[in-house]
Amino acid sequence: MFPPKKSFSSFGICTILIPLSLIPAISSAALSVQTSGIPMTIPGNDPRGVTSVVSISHPLTVISSVEVLIDKSGGWSGAVYAYLAHGDSFSVLLNRPGRSAMKPDGSGATSMLVSLGGSNLPDIHTAIPDTGHVTGAYAVDGRNVDPPLVSEVNARSAFWDSFDGLAPNGQWTLFIADMAAGNTMILNAWSLRVEAAPEPSLPLLGLVSCLLL
Asked: Is the peptide bond before 198 cis (omega within 30 degrees of 0)?
C-alpha cells in the first residue's frame, strides 16, 4: 500500500538563492605516472602478453580524463593488442591497428611512440601509417573484439569513459601482447596521465524550497 497522504492546514514556500560567488571553485589537477621495470620483451604469438602496473595515491577523487603514452620498438605494429585496466573498468588502447579485410596483418610499422587520448583525435586503428615509425596523438582503438577477428568496421565501445567518475587511486595495469609469430617487440616505456578533481559536493546553487506548516 502507498503511504497515506499528509494534509496541511496551511503552507508556504520559501526560496533561498545562493550567490555563485559563495561557491568555491572545484579545481582539477593532472597526475603523471612514469613506469619502472622496463624495457621488457613482448613474446611473439603469445596472447598471454605482459603486464606493467603503476599505483596512484592522491586526494583527488574524480577522474575526468585519461591519457597513455606508449613507446614500443621492433615487431609488427598490426600484431599488437593492448588495454589499460583500473578496478573493474578498462579501455582497449590498441587492437591490431590497421587490420582490415584488405590488410589482415594490420600495419607494418615497426615502432611507435604515441599518445593515446580522447575520441576527438584520429582513430589509431584506421589512421596508423602502414610502415616506418609511428608518432603523434591518436584516439584509443576502443574495439572490444577478439584480436584475430577485429577490423575497422567493428564498433568502438571500450573508450576512456569507463573510467569517468571513478577515483584515480589504486592500481592501473597496462596489458600488451604480440599476436603474431616471428617478431621481436620491446616495450621501452609507457606513462599514464590522469586528470582528476575533488569529489563535488551536492549542488548549492539553485532553489531550496521548504514547506512551512
From this structure: no
